Every structure is written in C-alpha cells, then in structure tokens.
Amino acid sequence: MTIEELYHTMARAMGPQPWLKPGTPWAETPVEIMLGAILVQNTNWRNVEPALRNLKRETGFEPTRLRALTPESITPLIQSSGFYRRKAAAILSLAAWLGDHDDDLSALKHGDGGQERAELLAITGIGNETADYILMYTLDHGTFMVDTYARRLFSWLGATMPKTYPAFQKQVLAQFPLGLRDCQEFHALIDEFGKQVKTDSDFAASFLAGQHLTV
C-alpha cells in the first residue's frame, strides 16, 4: 500500500481520532499546546499537568506574562516535568519568539511554515518533533511527525526509511498530498495505533498484519 492508502485504511478501521486543538478538554489556548509540547519532552503527561496548572495560574498562558518570568521564577512552576532548567529556557525563548511576531498567531498561521520551523529549531530545547507539533497543532501548517510510533509502524510494514528525522519526513511528505486536518488525523491515528499495538505479536494480530508499505 502507499502512504495515502495506509492513512485511509487506518481511518476506516479506527474511526475519527481526538487531537489537540484550542478550546477542547485537552487544551484551552494555542499557547498552552505550545508549552505542553516542550514540557512533555522526556516525561509523561501526568508530570506535565501540574506544571501547566502552575503556568496557567501565574500567566494565564498569555505571552506577555510569560515574558515577565525569569529563569528563577519559572523553574519552580515547571519542576514536576523534569529537565526543568532546559525546559524553562525553551519556554522563555518561545515566549520571546512570539513577541518577535507581535504575538500574532493569525499572522503566523498565514506565514511561511518553513521559515517558522527554522526559527523554532533555532531555540535551544526545541527539536524537530516539538517544532512540528507546534506547527501542526497551533499554527495550522500540515506536516508529518517522525515520532517513535511512526518509525515502529513503518518498520513493521517493511518500509526501509532514512534514519534522520528530516530525510524520513521528506520522503513521507513527497508521497502524502493531504491537507492540514488529514495530517493531524494521520498523526493521531499512528500514535493511537502505537499505544495499542506494542509488540510484534500485537502487530501480527492487528488489521495491518500482512500489509507492506511502498515508499
């Protein structure tokens, strides 16, 4: 099957998936989603929730109030998430980046996604996966996230993919001509599949068993 056929097969078998968007039970604002993307690095969501509650209490997730924080004042707020010094620096740099764009998320949504990605990657503590998460779920730039679940699924399907994130992503995007919502849905499907299908024997019993991905 092609990558597009894989997407439609998963969508038929698994049905519509919930994914992060502002104003849902998972996140109130785009900035909350951005902060969560940084805080969840190398930890689980259970450790992120207290940090987000603290940041909401202190800043309301408003970029101007985030920029008023210092490394000393933000660190205790996010300590539960681990690696808090690095994450504190990344959050403060992200808030500064938003300020450089006048905190205008609408303009960023209509801007050059490639340029915005490069600017996000220039922030220490924001890597490829975090940058793409921010782009896709807060700034409406469709892309493909090369996370652990995606790598494992493609391997199970017999696809030999590049080892580096950019090369893997480029190869997928060249064959995946779908819009923003489909990109968001595809990522959600892959991650939900990965949470349910964890072993080779799980995969052998799944609806994708016996399929081969052509890339």
From TrEMBL:
Molecular functions (GO terms): 4 iron, 4 sulfur cluster binding; endonuclease activity; metal ion binding
Domain HhH-GPD stretches: 39-196
Cross-referenced CDD domains: ENDO3c
UniProt KW keywords: 4Fe-4S, Endonuclease, Hydrolase, Iron, Iron-sulfur, Metal-binding, Nuclease
SMART domains: ENDO3c (SM00478)
GO BP annotation list: base-excision repair
Pfam family, one: HhH-GPD
PANTHER family attached to this UniProt entry: A/G-SPECIFIC ADENINE GLYCOSYLASE/ENDONUCLEASE III, DNA REPAIR GLYCOSYLASE MJ1434-RELATED
Name listed for the protein in its UniProt record: Endonuclease III-like protein
Organism: Levilactobacillus acidifarinae DSM 19394 = JCM 15949
Lineage of producing organism: Bacteria, Bacillati, Bacillota, Bacilli, Lactobacillales
